[in-house]
Amino acid sequence: MFITFEGIDGCGKSTQAKLLEERLRASLSTPIVFVRDPGHTGISESIRAILLDKANTAMTARTELLLYSAARAQLVDTVIAPALLAGSIVLADRFTDSTIAYQSFGRGLALPDIHHANAVATGGIVPNLTFFLDVPLHHAKERCADKNADRIELAGDEFFERVIAGYRSLTENEPQRVKRLDATLEVETLHEYIWSAVQAAFVS
Ligand code: TMP
After folding, report:
1. Residue 114 CB contacts under 8 Å (≥ 6 apart), including other chains
2. How far apart are CA 144 and CA 147, in angstroms?
3. Ligand 1 pocket, residue 99 CB under 6 Å
4. Which atom of ligand 1 is nearest to the CA of 13?
5. DSSP element (H, E) containing 190
6. Does residue 9 line the site of ligand 1, with CB under 6 A?
């Protein structure tokens, strides 16, 4: 079982991913592996640092796409694929849908190129269930107000409105896999919804 969490920066997905991890650990004996993408492995964390460094203003959109893909390939090959093969539950804070939303809808790269890069990076692994935490941009910005913005977070409001639109279109295209949640709801309310959806996915 592979579950991913998606949404713009400040949507609350990391909080929800952690709550689900805790609940699963308390309820099941199945091993749980929690990762963040980009990141988790040494190589992927090094690539993440390059991607988020706001000094890298010269980075082009295609370079950005390939670096996210490289970080993900390392994460899939060394952690996600072996864990799924061993029967673990894998939870990921972001995965391929981020690349569709940010690099295609946000940066304007062609969707077929994104699909191709994602296919190479994942070797065909697709999440069973994805939670998209949908939040208005102003709401997310309030939550991030105290944070030192990274290179992506400096991209501007129009960029993030396109990213949100990208996520919404994903939900419409793949309603079975991608569950859109109103992320302005209380943390506990959202967690209960996520827990029910995960339980339903386990029994189906
Ligand atoms: P995080 O702070 O949520 O871990 O994500 C790092 C940033 O990278 C975030 O601004 C979203 C962005 N991102 C992309 O642009 N494309 C991707 O494929 C991924 C995984 C993240």
Report:
1. 65, 99, 100, 103, 104
2. 5
3. yes
4. 3
5. helix 187-203
6. yes
Contacts of 1 (CB under 8 A, 6+ apart): 89, 90, 128, 129, 201, 202
Atom from ligand 1 closest to the CA of residue 99: 18
| Ligand 1 atom closest to Cα of residue 96 | 18
Backbone φ and ψ for 7, nearest 5 degrees, come out as: 150, 170
| Atom 15 of ligand 1: nearest residue by CA position | 102
Q: What is the pLDDT of residue 193?
A: 97
CB atoms within 10 A of CB 186: 8
Contacts (Cβ under 8 Å, ≥6 apart) of 65: 99, 103, 107, 109, 113, 114, 117
pLDDT in tens, 52-96: 999 999 999 999 999 999 999 999 999 999 999 999 999 999 999
The total number of residues shown for the chain amounts to 204
Q: What is the pLDDT of residue 144?
A: 80
Distance, first Cα to last Cα, the chain: 12
Specify the ligand 1 atom closest to the Cα of 95. 20
- Look-up: residue for tokens 């191709």? 116
Task: Name the residue of 152, 153, 154 to mutate for ligand 1: max ligand atoms within 8 A of Cβ.
Answer: 152
